[in-house]
Amino acid sequence: MEYFYAVFTKEDDNVLVSIPDVEICETFGKTWNEAYEMGVDALAACLSEPETIVHPKSTRESLQADNPESEIVPIPVDESIRKKYTKTKRFNVIFPEDLLVRVDEYRAGAGMKRSQLLAEAAEQYLEAQV
């Protein structure tokens, strides 16, 4: 699993979170646990933006040396959260009626929306072609 190191700094009543290797990726929480959860969410949101600049990965040691009063914590890249932040685009699709009925029966049973099923199927198809 991919991760980035985050700098956790206690300041007043908050825990500030900064991810130095991802440009302008900062958040905070009231507690350490909330700050961690917010860090995971912020990292996913930052990485979903195409213009985000990602720098070479810093080491835990170099970040700790630069931030001796802070905790250095690895934050995982959560792809499920990242996908929620990914920009979407609406378009029309024409399907044979009998196929659309089958799609709707399947997605209803799987608890999915039609667009979610079609996007996942398209991703699987494209990955299989490589």
UniProtKB/TrEMBL annotation:
<dbReference type="GO" id="GO:0006355">
    <property type="term" value="P:regulation of DNA-templated transcription"/>
</dbReference>
<dbReference type="InterPro" id="IPR031807">
    <property type="entry name" value="HicB-like"/>
</dbReference>
<dbReference type="InterPro" id="IPR010985">
    <property type="entry name" value="Ribbon_hlx_hlx"/>
</dbReference>
<dbReference type="InterPro" id="IPR035069">
    <property type="entry name" value="TTHA1013/TTHA0281-like"/>
</dbReference>
<protein>
    <recommendedName>
        <fullName>HicB-like antitoxin of toxin-antitoxin system domain-containing protein</fullName>
    </recommendedName>
</protein>
<feature type="domain" description="HicB-like antitoxin of toxin-antitoxin system">
    <location>
        <begin position="7"/>
        <end position="122"/>
    </location>
</feature>
<dbReference type="Pfam" id="PF15919">
    <property type="entry name" value="HicB_lk_antitox"/>
</dbReference>
